[in-house]
Amino acid sequence: MPVAPHLVPLAGFAGLMATAAFEDFRRLVIPNGLTLGLCILWPGPGGTLPLLVLTGLLGGLLCLLLLTPAGKLIATARPTLGDPSGGDPGRGAKRLVVPYGVAIAAAALIVTIPPNFN
């Protein structure tokens, strides 16, 4: 079965987006090379507004999830970036670090993949 040519860059975009989400969850950093690749492979400006709206919604849901007891278990499983309080023991004692790259990746995949399989 032949592969539609427009699905090749879409597969690359999906792979890079999944890698970016994993790296953001693991290290709270998305490497610049991944960001450049995602910008190059973004499948067109028509999906930008739905991406922004869905990213906001999923980011909010991710924050709410991390505030639950199950989310606290997830948050403790991840390494943190140094001292989040900046040296002030009173500031940041209850600070929650959210890997928004996960919400961005989920929104991007929801916005880009389904329209290509209709």
Number of helices: 5
Our estimate of the beta-strand percent is: under 5%
Roughly what is the average pLDDT, rounded to an integer? 84
The general outline is elongated
Using only C-alpha atoms, the radius of gyration works out to 17 Å
Estimated helix fraction:
55-70%
Poorly predicted runs of 5 or more residues:
none
Oligomeric grouping of the chains: single chain
Tell me the count of domains. 1
Span of the ends, CA to CA = 17 Å
Structural class: mainly alpha
The counted number of beta strands is 0
User: Could you state the order of secondary-structure elements as H and E?
Assistant: HHHHH
Largest sheet: none
Would you give an account of this structure?
By secondary structure, the protein is an all-alpha fold. It has one domain. It is built from five helices and no strands. Helix 1 packs antiparallel against helix 5 and helix 3 packs across helix 5. It starts with 6 loop residues before the first helix and ends in a 6-residue tail after the last helix. The relative contact order is 0.19. The model has no long low-confidence stretch (mean pLDDT 84).
